[in-house]
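User: Protein folding is very new to me. Would you mind checking the protein record under this note? It all follows right here:
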Amino acid sequence: MSNQIFTLLSYALSIYQFILLGRVLMSWLPNLDRNNPIARFLYAATEPILEPIRRLLPASSGMDFSPLIVFLGIAVLNQLLGRLF
């Protein structure tokens, strides 16, 4: 049972990483319409996690390192869950 829970959590974290990657890639395309449904979904799914981290990080001359922090946090969480289960 615990192995199934770990597998489910691991899949959920992997899916979130892909969503976050989509958000990062989308930010590199300045001419992309931010009002299309995919863009709205990516922002709605990632902004509640990124915004508090962005507030905690010091200003870095236009670079947003919050996705990197989230990617690292997910990797650490995956490692901890792997050792727990």
Residues 53 and 69 are 8 Å apart (CA to CA). The two ends are 10 Å apart (CA to CA).
